[in-house]
Design brief:
The chain is an alpha+beta fold. The protein is about 35% helix and about 20% strand.
Length: about 550
């Protein structure tokens, strides 16, 4: 074993002989960490907590990963990695090396980056030059001045027109008045022509300077795009079968086709690559967050998180080929049948079990939509009026005809329908009640996660603290909008309640279920106009 491997392959500081190995490798996109992964993560956390020189950087947040491995002698150990770079470097003794180190001073990437930086400087110099500034100001002033001249002449012509109209009414010389009108129109045409020439001259002077800037910008775009693709080709990844491909080949068959920025730099791929390069057998993997949550996102210090979908899923799916991998746990979910809690000839309200989808999905998990079609027949209209997250239980309203669906959809859109949820939070909150107003949008790099963002859709939630129960808070939520994961994000985000819902496998810590339940629903009946309120108590 080389010196480098001896440094990077860490041994456990606690006894592990009593811990059974996992039968198959971790499904990294939805998992509960194996005990060996947890013990490894604890050692890594102790190590990084001692590195005071990294404290400020790590306090802002970073993802770390551990990979439990077996060496050729059959001994267990683990590898550690961080996502991105740390302290301005990709290489640190405790952690595995990057798949490709683009931060080397003599690397083609750094050299080309310097060339692109020089182009940026040229662009900035041209834009800030006195010649460019004067040309732009002159063009703007000419446009303003000529517009004012046209406006003044129009006003003058209007007053002359009104005077001529009055003169005609009083029997004035029609021919003379007509000539005056023609003269005014000719004057306007001459002014427009003159002004057009002034603007064209000023525009031409500006365009000559702008053309140089645009040429440099096009060169920058071309060189940046080529550099990025050249970099992706340097990331040559292995799998357990010994096959090697680059990032471009991995992402070519995906919907995005081109690798996203940062692909190959996350902890998971680094760990797998190092293991294959050094004849180490991957046993189990886990990734955890260290530090504060990024702005807009929900990350809890010390919590474990699945590998991201946009960057890591295509990569790790390839790298795991040849390993015996756990089944996707989301594909194996068995759900209870829903309970009918209210029904008439127009509508049916069910208590959707947690784990059941509202509408059909790619996972094959049973949905309320399928249940409704089996029971009432499939019509030419959508039966599901609104949706609940797969993990959320409670009242789901289903239409039996097209008119009922349209009327109830309108009530959802206009927010005349009222609903409330019960949740157990994984911690204590002190505020008795309040309103959370945080806009939400999809986190495109980590679907289906949502994030708080100024460019998101408005999301408003009223909440009431009902009780404190053994370190948990029982809360009633009244969502005034219906954004995806709204209650989960508003609860977990630091600018919301700052405490995740118990059992939240996306924004908190997984449990046997998500402790969120749609408890009440109030609406106007689409046929009778009667106000209907349905209640369904949570099992927790």
């Amino acid at each position: 074993m080389s010196k480098f491997i001896q440094i990077m392959l860490h041994r456990y500081s606690k006894p592990i002989s009593h811990i059974a190995l996992p039968e198959r490798f971790t499904w990294p996109f939805h998992y509960r960490p194996h005990e060996l992964s947890r013990l490894a993560a604890e050692q890594v956390q102790s190590y990084i907590a001692e590195r005071k020189e990294w404290a400020e950087e790590l306090s802002k947040g970073k993802m770390f990963g551990v990979l439990v491995v077996k060496d050729k002698q059959g001994e267990l150990g683990f590898l550690a990695a961080f996502s991105g770079n740390l302290a301005g470097s990709n290489c640190h003794d405790y952690f595995v090396e990057p798949i490709y180190d683009m931060l080397q001073p003599d690397d083609f990437f750094r050299k080309e980056e310097q060339q692109i930086s020089q182009i940026n400087e040229q662009i900035d110099t041209l834009i800030s030059s006195e010649e460019y500034t004067q040309a732009k100001e002159n063009l703007d002033q000419v446009k303003i001045r000529t517009a004012e001249e046209i406006s003044k002449l129009k006003a003058l012509m209007q007053s002359r027109k009104e005077a001529r109209h009055k003169a005609r009414a009083e029997g004035g010389d029609i021919e003379q008045l007509t000539r005056e009108s023609q003269q005014d129109n000719a004057q306007m045409q001459r002014l427009k022509k003159h002004n057009k020439e002034l603007i064209a001259t000023a525009q031409e002077q500006f365009d000559i300077l702008q053309a140089n800037i645009e040429r440099l910008k096009r060169e920058r775009r071309t060189r940046s795009a080529k550099l990025q693709m050249d970099l992706f080709r340097e990331f040559r990844l292995k799998n357990a079968l010994g096959e090697v491909v680059d990032l471009c080949e991995i992402f070519a068959p995906t919907p995005q086709a081109i690798p996203p920025a940062g692909a190959g730099e996350c902890a998971g791929p680094k760990l797998m690559q190092y293991a294959y390069n050094n004849d180490l057998q991957p046993i189990a993997m886990a990734e955890f967050w260290w530090g504060e949550s990024p702005k807009g996102e929900v990350r809890q210090h010390g919590n474990y998180y699945p590998a991201c979908n946009s960057k890591c899923k295509p990569i790790l799916t390839f790298m795991m080929q040849g390993l015996e991998v756990e089944d996707n746990p989301l594909m194996a979910i068995e759900v209870e049948e829903p309970e009918i809690i209210w029904e008439d000839e127009w509508l049916v309200a069910i208590n959707k079990p947690h784990g059941m989808l509202s509408v059909r999905g790619k996972s094959g998990v049973r949905s309320a939509e399928e249940w409704a079609e089996e029971r009432y027949g499939k019509g030419d209209f959508p039966m599901i009026i609104h949706r609940l997250d797969q993990s959320t239980s409670g009242i789901l309203l289903i239409a039996k005809n097209k008119e009922a669906h349209q009327v109830l959809q309108e009530q959802f859109i206009k927010r005349t329908l009222k609903k409330s949820y019960i949740a157990l939070l994984d911690g204590v909150i002190t505020q008795k009640e309040g309103v959370i107003d945080l806009p939400i949008r999809l986190d495109y790099d980590n679907r289906p996660r949502q994030m708080v963002s100024a460019d998101g859709k408005q999301a408003i939630t009223h909440y009431q603290l009902l009780a404190e129960e053994n370190g948990h808070s029982r809360v009633r939520f009244y969502p005034l909008t219906g954004r995806t994961h709204q209650l989960r994000v508003h609860s977990a985000h630091k600018d919301g309640l700052g405490v995740p819902i118990m059992g939240d496998d996306i924004y908190g810590i997984p449990e046997k279920r998500l402790y969120l339940h749609a408890e009440t629903l109030e609406f106007t009946h689409p046929r009778t106009g009667e106000r209907i309120k349905i209640e369904c108590r949570a099992e927790f």
